[in-house]
Amino acid sequence: MTEEQLATPPAAPRKGRRVGMGILLGCVMATLIFTGGWVWTGAVLFTLYQGFRELTSIMKAKDIRPSQLIVLTTGIALILLAHFDKTQYFLPMITLGIIGSFIRLLFRKPRATINDIGATFLAIFYVAFLPMHFILLRNVSAEGAYYVFFTVLVISMSDVGAYYVGKLMGRHPLYPEISPKKTTEGAIGGLVVGIIAGTGFAFLAYFNWLHALLLSVLLVVVSQLGDLAESLIKRDAGVKDSGGLFQGHGGLLDRLDSYLFCGAISYYYIHWVVLQQGLVKDLLPLFP
Q1: pTM above 0.85, yes or no
Q2: What is the rounded CA–CA span in Å between residue 36 and residue 151?
């Protein structure tokens, strides 16, 4: 071993860095959740901006160019509507976004393609409409912060469980065509750990254990599908990471891919089933 090698400290274990990054992000997330208000809305706006940058970077590898103007203006409008609880304007805003996409790309030079139009729609829904539900969930009731925290806790603990169980016991690939490193054993481990985390938090927060169990199962399954969905996008584009925001840990989309679908799942479950508002409220009178 040379003197230079002796003088250079060994690199921190990758596993330790992963856990450390997870703890740091968890602390930041908890602070944002319980602060709420414009701080929480600002975090979702940042997700829109950074997420769209990373998604655009991935799409460039396929020579696909969504409209930045339409995605950002429509996305910001949707997030602000959620902040002010103006949900009745979601459909008109999405309609305007779709029409605006066609008009903007119709006159863009160089000429836009069908892929550009489709990618614009995808970006609006993927990095704006889906994350927006975390604002709706935070404001759904006086306990909204606990519902968001519950959602984040279940997903993050499920990710940890899937990672370590997969490393220790993983033998059977889950979906090798999309994500070769994920295993069936890891997915099951993530499900078990996520359920334990969700039901454990329910007892501490006085959340109905049956709702906690059902919602935990839904969240873990959907979060794993969300992870695979982003992997599908990256694999099709031939890129490894969505970006380099977290050095050595990929981009924001790489860190939040498990969460993007889950804000909507939690919101509609809480809104419809737990609080019996919206769809369930309208359906209940139909059953004697």
Answers
A1: yes
A2: 15
